[in-house]
Amino acid sequence: MKISTKGRYALRLLVELACHDPEEYVALKDIAESQNISKKYLEQIVPLLTRGRLLATNRGYQGGYRLARDPSTISCWEVLHLTEGDMAPVSCLENGIENNDCPRRSECLTLPVWNGLYKVIREYLEGISIEDIATNANGTGGDDYII
Amino acid sequence: MKISTKGRYALRLLVELACHDPEEYVALKDIAESQNISKKYLEQIVPLLTRGRLLATNRGYQGGYRLARDPSTISCWEVLHLTEGDMAPVSCLENGIENNDCPRRSECLTLPVWNGLYKVIREYLEGISIEDIATNANGTGGDDYII
DNA sequence: TTCAAAACCTACCGTTTTAGTAGTATTATA
DNA sequence: TATAATACTACTAAAACGGTAGGTTTTGAA
Prior knowledge:
By secondary structure, chain A is mainly alpha-helical.
């Protein structure tokens, strides 16, 4: 039950970009350095975000990445869904509870627990935007977000 | 970001026991059969629950397991914590946010996101007991728990 | 007292996922 | 055309996952 480095690094990268001029293209090298993440590994993560239309890219000299949308419209959920794949807490829910082909489905008493957990996680992460994080919008100076 | 079979099987086992006479010892063989889970694999999971004082056990002829506590006092959180280990969504939080020794800790903008996620997950799972599941306490006939 | 049914213990194992590294190709600008 | 950037693909060591296998110990009944 862990978020992998892919999702965590992607989030940090997007937050960092949200702190830059929205027009400016930032090179992966610089992000990797300031975030202390392997640039080569980031190269592998970033295409997930460009394909998901979260990042705009510029190749060649002085190229780099910038946010493709306003950071207030990009939710954590969207980022993690792109990088972590399906965020369902159990595989039985991966294609929606309706398309569950488990033979025990109808009698499974625990399935509603997982479905509710899925919902709780999704709603929490949908409620936090990249901008929220970049501006430390929980504000209180506390250690967590209360939405 | 998945609950493994250990946690899922453990939950199903406890729910099944909650449906039996609380005094009766049920053999693992029977649980494995009715739940369609490898008995040998369950043998590996069950000690986690006995050590956690959720199960009482009886060895030898006509032995088996029964719940050590009233199912209304056993929460999903407790079960998953015992079987899945620390349920923190990122390793940075595994020993509590205070004992995080990451050098980036103080400047890490994403940490509060994970801490809040941790909280949301914990509170949801703490709110559901084994008895709730066994009696299908969400009641509505819906697909998830709303606590 | 012996037999059988149960829990208990521990080693092993194939597969998948994770967290990268490495090298090359392509693109764009000065 | 040199250079600095992204893009793509292959590889890999280590860990986690989901079991299987085989033996030991305990207990109650015949």
